């Protein structure tokens, strides 16, 4: 039953999401073939102002398009959860012979899959449009610095750091999906204004999460550039950018997991004990 629910949710979200991501990739190919593909180290100074004006406009529109696609993906995932769980469609969903925990788990998996597809699509579009020889050569000049900044030269090694970033990305997508579902579930408290309640709860929850992060980061000295020590003389702020980056992300990951568990439990409780369909 778990697989069937995931398959149904994926199918319900596929139609529009496939269209917008396909449009994004087509636009990326358009930029690559007609604009950025012409940019080389040999002719960069000979293309003229008109070329760079067009380049600037297309890149600006591309950034807007990337943002819209990412935002639309999140909205579609959230709306589908609301419609299939708390609206009239929810009556059918909750008649299925499946436990509420299984239902919620399936929806988290489906939402996470589409979030990961979205991230892959965004990176693919950027790669197609921007990864031209001129950009490669420009980045290769600062390769050592970039590897240090992103922690690829740390004690974890290149593959270890990449694996950590991939895990962080996956954990972040799961956390975002759970956040959407939790805010929608908490928004049902506002009878008659459920959508407004869900949006309000999103801002409230994210604000509380941000405050909790600050309360952890400030004592640890992660928001300044000075070395901070505690009673055990353990240095919390590492001296290199890669150590700082990985340390910051490591603590962020721990807080993200804690908040995700809390919000998942709240969502499950609302579904299992406080279900109130529109």
UniProtKB/TrEMBL annotation:
<feature type="transmembrane region" description="Helical">
    <location>
        <begin position="51"/>
        <end position="82"/>
    </location>
</feature>
<keyword id="KW-1133">Transmembrane helix</keyword>
<keyword id="KW-0472">Membrane</keyword>
<feature type="transmembrane region" description="Helical">
    <location>
        <begin position="103"/>
        <end position="130"/>
    </location>
</feature>
<feature type="transmembrane region" description="Helical">
    <location>
        <begin position="243"/>
        <end position="266"/>
    </location>
</feature>
<feature type="transmembrane region" description="Helical">
    <location>
        <begin position="195"/>
        <end position="223"/>
    </location>
</feature>
<feature type="transmembrane region" description="Helical">
    <location>
        <begin position="162"/>
        <end position="183"/>
    </location>
</feature>
<protein>
    <submittedName>
        <fullName>Uncharacterized protein</fullName>
    </submittedName>
</protein>
<feature type="transmembrane region" description="Helical">
    <location>
        <begin position="12"/>
        <end position="31"/>
    </location>
</feature>
<keyword id="KW-0812">Transmembrane</keyword>
